[in-house]
Amino acid sequence: MPELAEVEAYRRLAETATGRAVATVDTPDDWYLKGGVDRAALTAALGGRTFTAARRIGKLLLLDTDTPEAGRGPVSGPTLGLRFGMTGRLLVDDRLGVDRLAYSSDQYKPEWIRFSIGFADGGRMAVLDPRRLGGVFLDPDEDALGPDAASVGLAALRGALGTSRAPLKARLMDQAHLAGVGNLIADEVLWRAGLDPRRPAGSLTPAETRRLHRHLRGVVDDLLGRGGSHMGDLLEARLPGGRCPRDGAPLTRGQVGGRTTWWCPRHQR
User: CATH assignment of 146-263?
Assistant: First the structure.
């Protein structure tokens, strides 16, 4: 599933779309357009504009635009926002941002294209999403997201946890408080940090918060380098009968924050 690591790979691929003018906008699945945007509005907003930057906040990919205006030079245009849900992949000029997603098909089927842009130079950018859980936005509210998990500081993480009584894992995955952490990253971080995902988020001691911060940043760096959120040390053990790679104890499976969660009852406290 696309988490921070996958969307960062998409962002890097999307950089190959910068400096290119939009010639056509195709929305074969209008349900995929979010925030009250329809096909006509999206075409009017993007047609003739040029992508100037590819950014990412958490799991949201942002493509800024501008357009030349007579006598004034480039003028800032709207920002295209792309969310990828659980199965979305980005395609630019026949290159995929990632080859494999956990829990999704690796096939390419034309009917899975939910949105695409044709460039004036003949290239194309498209979103493939078998389960249709992603979406396309214009000028999404970036302030609705918490700090990005790849760069969050200790003080910001402490603020994200606050005094919340919500389960620690659920708080880490709440995009309004911390952007970018999904199910796989959350389990990996808490396993490495030795923290029980069911604990109230606000119950961590200062030392535990520092440990959580260290492992959060370490996991994100590792997974970016390894090539995806499915490349964690815990992943292969997240199955019935799986044992903790650290101490060999049988892993526990349960629902935390509505998500299937695996943890080691021996060292995660």
Answer: 1.10.8.50
